């Protein structure tokens, strides 16, 4: 498991390195002092997990995640307890208060190991293939949430959205949860129809009813029957490129 430490405190980074020595399966691939430096390191170091502080000079840890279209798993390390709810809203694996305790760090790393285990593919296809087959908008998929089941056309799904450790599917008046990541779904869905708007949402382009400019050269998209979706800066540029003549 490769980990990048992101914290403006040199002493905090040293303490984390010391605690991680008790976990031989962990490799610290680098250290970043702030969000901008972490953003620079991510493409080359490609860590599996970020040990991420929240309060840093310039941008917060939340700002860093919001600027990324795809991010490693995140374990927050912070001296403040009031951001715990928001941390889990951005799909963090865990939230560790400083000074970080050995047993809490061990538990968080165990969650990371579980999250890094590849998930089996369960979305049905008409003819089984040895490799995942791209699903078109005309395909139907089986969806089960608790005791309720649906067989729904992908064309009728307007939005996929992260909800905790699950993904929520929006179709008709239903919003069931499935145990799949957006990365997994993105690999299976037709990119001509389904677009990754940000870290947390994939939209069906055929359900768009309105587009308007938003902050910092981003876009806000209105889907038929809702909701509104804010497109990240990078994906806004990609959307303009894809949709323009």
TrEMBL record:
Q: What GO MF annotations does this protein's record show? A: DNA binding; phosphorelay response regulator activity
- Residues recorded as bearing 4-aspartylphosphate in the entry: 53
| UniProt superkingdom | Bacteria
User: Domain Response regulatory spans what residues?
Assistant: 2-113
The reply on keyword Phosphoprotein is: yes
Q: Which UniProt keywords apply?
A: DNA-binding, Phosphoprotein
Task: Tell whether DNA-binding is among the UniProt keywords.
Answer: yes
Gene3D superfamilies per the record? 3.40.50.2300, LytTr DNA-binding domain
**Domain HTH LytTR-type: start-end pairs:** 143-245
PROSITE patterns with a match to the protein in the record: HTH_LYTTR, RESPONSE_REGULATORY
Family matches, as InterPro entries: CheY-like_superfamily (IPR011006), LytR-like (IPR046947), LytTR_DNA-bd_dom (IPR007492), Sig_transdc_resp-reg_receiver (IPR001789)
Coiled-coil parts of chain: none
Name of the molecule in the record: LytTR family DNA-binding domain-containing protein
Source species of the chain: Hymenobacter aerilatus
For this protein's source organism, the top of the classification is: Bacteria, Pseudomonadati, Bacteroidota, Cytophagia, Cytophagales
């Amino acid at each position: 498991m490769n980990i990048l430490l992101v914290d403006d405190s040199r002493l905090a980074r040293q303490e984390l390195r010391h605690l991680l020595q008790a976990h031989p399966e962990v490799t610290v691939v680098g250290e970043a002092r702030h969000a901008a430096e972490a953003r620079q390191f991510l493409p080359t170091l490609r860590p599996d997990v970020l040990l991420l502080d929240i309060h840093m000079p310039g941008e917060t840890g939340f700002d860093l995640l919001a600027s990324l279209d795809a991010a490693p798993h995140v374990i927050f390390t912070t001296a403040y307890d009031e951001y715990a709810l928001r941390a889990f809203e951005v799909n963090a694996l865990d939230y560790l208060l400083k000074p970080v305790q050995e047993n809490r760090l061990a538990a968080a790393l165990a969650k990371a190991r579980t999250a890094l285990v590849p998930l089996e593919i369960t979305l049905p296809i008409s003819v089984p293939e040895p490799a995942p087959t791209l699903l078109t908008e005309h395909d139907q998929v089986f969806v089960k949430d608790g005791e309720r089941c649906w067989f729904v056309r992908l064309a009728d799904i307007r939005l996929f959205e992260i909800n905790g450790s699950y993904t929520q599917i929006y179709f008709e008046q239903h919003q069931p949860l499935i145990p799949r990541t957006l990365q997994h779904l993105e690999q299976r869905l037709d990119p001509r129809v389904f677009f990754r708007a940000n870290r947390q949402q994939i939209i069906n382009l055929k359900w768009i009813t309105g587009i308007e400019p938003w902050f910092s050269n981003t876009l806000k998209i209105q889907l038929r029957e809702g909701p509104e979706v804010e497109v990240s800066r990078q994906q806004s540029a990609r959307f303009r490129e894809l949709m323009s003549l």
